[in-house]
């Protein structure tokens, strides 16, 4: 949700039964504008909320001039004070994958994971239990990154790529037509393309380089289920 149209977006999303209280909405509207100013972001998006046992995490993301460039994630526990999260890494994802269950709602909380590691002492090799401390902040970073890669999507035409490389918001975009909105090819993953780079020149012949510069949902293969039509 773009911070500039946050109240309308929250109204539309409240039909799912997961709305925000009026005071939370007011705090978000004010604080996200300050985040945009203080961090000098081109756009600030309200990513959503992750429920915790003690408190909930409210997540926002800041975008620079290039909309497909590096995305900065921030979190808040009260919708007023925001903290910048570090970038996600593969090592962080592997380390936090062993943590299951609900978030605590405390970024300084440490999970304990016991794993068997091979130890060497002289000529003797044996396995011993090692306790690994995993911070909830790292888990939060990893989960946000995984969700972005899996389900962050954008309609075709909402962004356009200039001949010089940067991706900008298409100010003339007014939404998809009813017919196009029913097609998976009308939606893209809102992350750096992976499959597109592996396509041949023949496969790219019918693509518009200013609009079709991300991976389409058309060729996604669902895991563990199937598309419903």
TrEMBL record:
Single GO cellular component term: axoneme
Subcellular location, principal: other
Subcellular location: Cell projection, Kinocilium; Cytoplasm, Cytoskeleton, Flagellum axoneme
Keywords assigned: Cell projection, Cilium, Cilium biogenesis/degradation, Cytoplasm, Cytoskeleton, Flagellum
InterPro entries attached to this UniProt entry: RSP9
Domain of life according to the entry: Eukaryota
A single BP term in Gene Ontology: motile cilium assembly
Family per similarity comment: Belongs to the flagellar radial spoke RSP9 family.
Name of the molecule in the record: Radial spoke head protein 9 homolog
Phylogenetic lineage: Eukaryota, Metazoa, Chordata, Craniata, Vertebrata
Gene that encodes the chain: RSPH9
């Amino acid at each position: 949700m773009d911070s500039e149209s946050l109240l309308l977006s929250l109204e539309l999303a409240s039909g799912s039964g997961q709305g925000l209280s009026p005071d939370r909405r007011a705090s978000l509207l004010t604080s996200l504008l300050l985040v945009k100013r203080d961090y000098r972001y081109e756009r600030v998006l309200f990513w959503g909320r992750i429920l915790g046992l003690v408190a909930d995490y409210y997540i926002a993301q800041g975008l620079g001039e290039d909309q497909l460039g590096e995305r900065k994630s921030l979190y808040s526990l009260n919708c007023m004070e925001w903290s910048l999260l570090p970038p996600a890494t593969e090592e962080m994802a592997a380390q936090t994958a062993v943590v299951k269950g609900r978030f605590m709602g405390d970024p300084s909380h440490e999970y304990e994971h016991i794993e068997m590691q091979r130890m060497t002492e002289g000529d003797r090799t044996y396995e011993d239990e090692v306790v690994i401390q995993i911070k909830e902040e790292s888990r939060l970073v990893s989960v946000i990154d995984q969700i972005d890669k899996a389900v962050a999507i954008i309609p075709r035409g909402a962004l356009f790529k200039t001949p010089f490389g940067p991706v900008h918001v298409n100010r003339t975009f007014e939404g998809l037509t009813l017919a196009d909105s029913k097609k998976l090819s009308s939606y893209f993953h809102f992350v750096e393309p992976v499959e597109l780079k592996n396509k041949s020149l023949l496969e790219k012949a019918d693509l518009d380089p200013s609009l079709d510069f991300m991976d389409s949902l058309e060729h996604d293969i669902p895991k563990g289920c199937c598309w419903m039509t």
